[in-house]
Write a structure and sequence with these properties.
- The complex is a heterodimer of chains A (178) and B (199).
- Chain A has 178 residues and is mainly α.
- Chain A is built from seven helices and no strands.
- Chain B is mostly helical.
- Chain B has seven helices and no strands.
- Helix content of chain B is 76%, strand content 0%.
- Chains A and B meet through helix 1, helix 2, helix 3, helix 4 and helix 5 of A and helix 1, helix 3, helix 4, helix 5 and helix 6 of B.
């Protein structure tokens, strides 16, 4: 670990900025997290990033927990807390002020226009997250098959996502993923 | 309450009849929603706030969520802050936020410690690999669900913007801030222009 510049500060500045650009929520920011954590900062390998995403999906709570895990990998418990707060607090303060502003002038048509403009953007970002994660997680054709099967099942049925995650874990344990 | 006491407030099914929650109630309610939320908390937040506690009507909830969805950052975190502030000001925001994020952060940190210690065990690696394949499939299904309204409306411009952002971030791997600084003004301009044409 490099002690010359504090990793905690890098975590705070990285995720504090990302917080304000994460249009469409934490899952839409995954390509950016991967770009910074794996390609730029070399905090995690590709495989570790895939593992971290799996763990964050396996635990209850908001999707933003992947940031907690990246922070933990970089600087332990302090890093986990720093990264989580950096990702949440700037946007939380913004949300607080905007909601107070809007309750005073609720007849503006700007919120509707901005929202309509952001919907296709955030879907495109989420799609990019799907692609980046598929490229990091699906190393074999059987792995790709499991991803495709889960995508179809989750799209077409109302199955609890937890069962699909557990089924994936069982297939992995059985050596199907390779 | 004794069973024969007069009904002070009749339960009207569509109205939020509960008194505004206190700080502890806010913390507890958001902690409960968060801890039951596997694969996203939103569905549990709606159930808890609208159906169970009746702190908001479905319509109020949709409006609040729409606001939180168009702001950047984790949507459900924004929702907890806006919701807490509405009833109890800044302390309410902090209570709801702490309830939403605190308990799961403890759980996920414990999982991270276990992963650090046992992550190299072969069986665990295989299980995690399987779970991550499935988790990616779940994310892809959400993307397709979100795309359906655009496709049903035959929104060519929306699909084009979506495809452009997907290519810039997913394929070309450009930095997010740069892409958004171009894409957001462009998308807002296109939305205003198409609304003028329709009007």
């Amino acid at each position: 670990m490099n002690f010359n510049h504090s990793p905690i500060w890098t975590l705070i500045s990285t995720f504090g900025l990302m917080s304000l650009f994460a249009v469409g929520g934490a899952n839409a920011a995954i390509p950016e997290m991967h770009r910074i954590a794996v390609d730029v900062q070399h905090w995690l390998t590709d495989k570790q990033f895939a593992d971290v995403y799996a763990i964050s999906q396996l635990s209850p709570g908001p999707n933003v927990l992947i940031v907690t895990l990246i922070g933990y990998a970089v600087a332990g418990v302090a890093g986990a807390l720093a990264a989580t707060l950096a990702m949440c607090v700037p946007t939380a303060v913004l949300a607080y002020w905007v909601s107070r502003l809007l309750t005073r002038s609720s007849h503006s048509r700007w919120p509707a226009i901005i929202q309509a403009a952001l919907v296709p953007l955030s879907i495109g970002l989420m799609g990019a997250s799907g692609l980046v994660l598929a490229l990091t997680s699906d190393r074999t054709w059987t792995a790709g098959l499991v991803t495709a099967a889960v995508a179809v099942l989750a799209f077409a049925t109302r199955l609890n996502p937890l069962w699909l995650l557990l089924a994936g874990g069982l297939l992995g344990f059985a050596g199907f993923i390779g | 309450m004794p069973p024969d006491s007069p009904p002070v407030a009749m339960a009207a099914p569509d109205l939020p009849i509960s008194a505004p929650p206190g700080l502890l109630a806010l913390f507890a309610a958001f902690a409960k929603m968060s801890l039951s939320g596997f694969g996203g908390v939103l569905a549990f937040a709606r159930r808890g706030i609208v159906d169970h506690h009746r702190w908001m009507t479905a319509e109020e909830f949709n409006e609040t969520f729409a606001l939180c969805h168009f702001l950047p950052g984790p949507n459900i975190v924004n929702l907890s802050v806006v919701f807490g502030a509405r009833f109890r000001g800044v302390p309410g925001s902090i209570a709801a936020f702490a309830g939403l994020v605190g308990p799961p952060v403890v759980i996920v940190t414990i999982l991270a410690v276990l992963y650090g210690r046992y992550g190299e065990i072969d069986a665990l690696r295989r299980i995690l690999a399987g779970i991550s394949c499935a988790a990616v499939g779940l994310l892809i299904s959400v993307v397709f669900r979100m795309m359906m309204p655009l496709i049903k409306k035959r929104d060519v411009v929306g699909v084009a913007v979506m495809a452009a952002v997907f290519t810039a971030i997913g394929v070309l791997r450009l930095p997010l801030p740069a892409v958004l600084l171009v894409a957001i003004p462009l998308s807002v301009a296109i939305t205003i222009a198409t609304r003028r044409v329709k009007a």
